[in-house]
Each structure stands twice: as C-alpha cells, then as structure tokens.
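Listing S7. Sequence submitted for prediction.
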Amino acid sequence: MSDTAQVSDTARVYGNAQVFGNARVYGDARVYGNAQVSGNAQVSGNARVYGDARVYGNAWVSDTAQVSGDAQVSGNARVYGNAWVSGNARVSRSPLVISGAEYVVTICDAPHVCVGCQIATLEQWAAGHAPEECPKLEAMRPHLIALARLHHENGI
C-alpha cells in the first residue's frame, strides 16, 4: 500500500497485490495475486480482484463482483452485484449485467461478453459459444445478443 491509499481493517490485500494512489479497499473485499487497485478506484463489499487484474481511474467494484485474469476495470465503470469480469475483458464504463439464467451475463466493452466466468467475443457467443447446456440462456440468446450490440454501439 502506498501514497494515500486506504485498506480497512476487515479488507485484505495479499500476495503481490498492490493498492496505491487514492484507491480504497474496504468492507470484506479481497485483492490478491498480482492484482492492482489504483487512482481513485474503490473495491468494497465482498468483491474480489485477483490474478493480474487491474482496477483504476474512478472505477468501483462492489457487492460480490469479481475481476480476474488480465481483466481491467477503469474510467467511471461500476461493476457490482454478481458480475464477473475475467480473461482479457476491458470495462471502461458500467457493464450491462443480466441475471436470472443459469449464469450471470456481463456485457463488457466491445467486443466482449462474459457468461459466468467465461469470456468470448459477441460474435463467438452469437455463433453458439456457451459454458454448457443452458436452456434459459439459449432461450434468451437472441435478446441478449441484441442488447449486447446496443450496449457495444451506443453504451445502452
């Protein structure tokens, strides 16, 4: 931890993880592995940031959201609820998060869509990429693809 960064008594930062700048980690949040939280970013609640993930700028990660792998959350993005941002996904504005099916669907910055903890491009997902047999997701697929295209093109 460095600069004016803050980590609350109940939050944990371990491994080679770093928190610096004016970043805050609080609640029962965990930052570990080689993850970095910097700038004015905040990680709170039961959120997890791990692997080589980065949260920076004015971004917030909260509730039970997870950011992992080489994923980056930046700008004014807000990642919360049960959202998972993983792989090499980039989120620089608030993602569109849809729950109620077998897995949470997180529509990140173009061209990525996360289904559960798996990431694919929108075109891969439209072509049938799915984590496993998911009848609810299959039924919702055309609508989710339309929403993802709107989000990617217009930020809706």
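Caption to Listing S7: primary sequence and predicted structure tokens for the chain studied. The first strand starts at residue 6 and ends at 7. The longest helix spans residues 135-154.
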